[in-house]
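BUG: 3D viewer hangs when loading the predicted structure for this chain

Environment: internal workstation, default settings.
Expected: structure renders.
Actual: progress bar stalls at 90%.

Input used:
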Amino acid sequence: MRILVLAALVFSGLAIAPAARAQFTDRSATSCIASGADRADCFVSGSLAEVFRISRDRAAWSGFAGLGRSPSALGAPSCISRAAGQFDCFSVAGDGSLWSRTSGAGWTSMGGNGMASSRASCVSIAAEQIDCFIRDRTNMLARRTYHRGRWFEWERLPGLIMTDSPHCLLVDDGSLSTVTVGTPIWCFARGPRNELWMATVPRLPSPTTPARWVNLGGDIRSYPSCVAADIGEVYCFVRGPDDRFWWKKADPYGGEAWRRGTGVLTSDVSCVSYTNTRIDCFVRGTDNAMYRTVGTRGSAVGGTSFGFSDFTSMGGVLTSAPTCTAHRPALNMTGAPHERIDCYTRGTDEALYNITWFPSGDTGWQSRGGRIGFWRREAG
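Structure tokens produced before the viewer hung:
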């Protein structure tokens, strides 16, 4: 990556004087999801902690719609989409309780006062199931599950003293009836010595099938970005102690060795996989532009099936880490019918910006307006 010295900052080809109040963070300032093949939703916080939603339907963008004042004091909401145009958002309040906001109802407390000490990470394995994970007040992983019309009580998943929020994902989405992973949810978290750990979690809460923790090693200095390239095949990406790009293949047995990439990172990493043969990762560089590296299956040497290119600049001036999304209807998808990646960030004028990549090129950075505040980063 290179450092550029500019008299003015440039975003989307237009010179923008840096905002006097603009602050920089290594974390994301948005929570964005791909809610369908040609749909996306972004959730941002205003200056008074009110949450706003902006949506894209094909090429058309809506304006910002207010979702009410968020109870969140511990990070961005975790949002999922169980059907096109619908969303479920979950946020942790200052008293440690979990709150929900759906497309059809306002913010509702789910109880658990004093339970959470981090933002939530939520996944949906089926239309009738949601799982939300948090770091609890004892710094252990805890889970709350919605299944077929009711919420289970909190389930503690001990085995690691966590020092950051969990990052959870599905490693078996049920798209292949002949393949079943007994623990289809994998959660990743940073340990007390900055190592990366993972827990394999059963589909439903079970006192007889506890989560199994595995130390994946490393020395991570960022929130991990882990993606499922295929059924049971996960790769994790982090910023290392040298501010370089590091990654490894992760599995319940420790995975492969950590590999070091190029570039100098100044933010968390955001990675997406829209087929099982490709992974794209995005970061902020030393000149505050966004950079991209592409991993392709079969191009690596040394024991991993993915190899990654050098970073290339996509321009912009980012005051937060990028948040990138790609629609993927099934983990076992081998074609590329939805070759589109959308990335979002906060600009120097505090507005929401996005850029879209297609195989034919990208759109350049475009302002979507608004004025985005920062989510408070939890302690630890």
